[in-house]
Amino acid sequence: MQYCGKTDVGMKRNVNQDHFAIKEYAPGILLAVVCDGMGGARGGREASCTATDSFVASMDSFVESHITEQHTIECTDAQIHRALRSAAATSNRAVFSRAEEDESLRGMGTTLVAVLIIGKTVYTVNIGDSRMYILHGASIEQITHDHSYVQYLVDTGRISAEEARTAQNRNIITRAVGTESSVDADVFVTEIDCAGGAVYVLLCSDGLTNHIGSDELASIITSDAEVSLKADTLVSRANSYGGTDNITAVVIKLENC
């Protein structure tokens, strides 16, 4: 397993409110999370960092209590689902409480998208409009479903997916970590097969996907370049197209799975 993450302030913002973390517990067991904060320069940064740290700490506790000496996880899918939702809830409480304690942070929040990879299974949790994609060969599949106003418009047939990329109100999200005392998280399970070649997992904030479409994402990620260069190229390409927001990309390469 190879992986690399990169975050960048972009071309228009003064502060980077994105945050990410990657942690490999053992060969074939990896956690990665991306958060995109909102609520003013200080609030957005505080929200994304708090959510990321709280989520990782919660998942650390779960993994460490279930990992064996043989580097396997002994638990059911249902337990993993509960652990991911619990970690998301912990992040939500941490951000919400921090905002309640400091009036200058009131209203802050963040998106959260994370994966726990165990062998051939990718468990994904999502709140907001940061995304997770699976790429295999020339195909790309968005696993998460945006919690955003423009996604609602797409779902109801009012605008196309292409129109959503440039819609003026695309920054309005309908679900976020920390803006309310509780929040619902979506959980997805994806079984992967590396028999036909490497499989890639991409976690990213909307600062990337607002500028780069699915076809171009697939072309960059499935190229022959090193994983670190793929992450660099994604960020630099988004900046070359305007870089109107903070940009974060985490690329994970799975082989021989």
Give me a quick take on this structure.
It contains seven helices and eleven strands. By secondary structure, the protein is of the alpha+beta class. β5 and β6 form a beta hairpin.
Tell me what you see in this structure.
The protein has helices at residues 40-66, 77-101, 149-155, 161-166, 206-209, 214-221, 227-240; strands at residues 2-8, 18-26, 29-38, 109-110, 112-118, 121-127, 131-136, 139-142, 186-191, 199-204, 247-254. The protein has 257 residues and is of the alpha+beta class. It has one domain: Phosphatase 2c, domain 1. Strands 2, 3, 4, 5, 6 and 9 form a 6-stranded antiparallel β-sheet that branches. A 5-stranded antiparallel β-sheet has the order 1-11-10-7-8. The radius of gyration is 17 Å and the shape is globular. The mean pLDDT is 95.
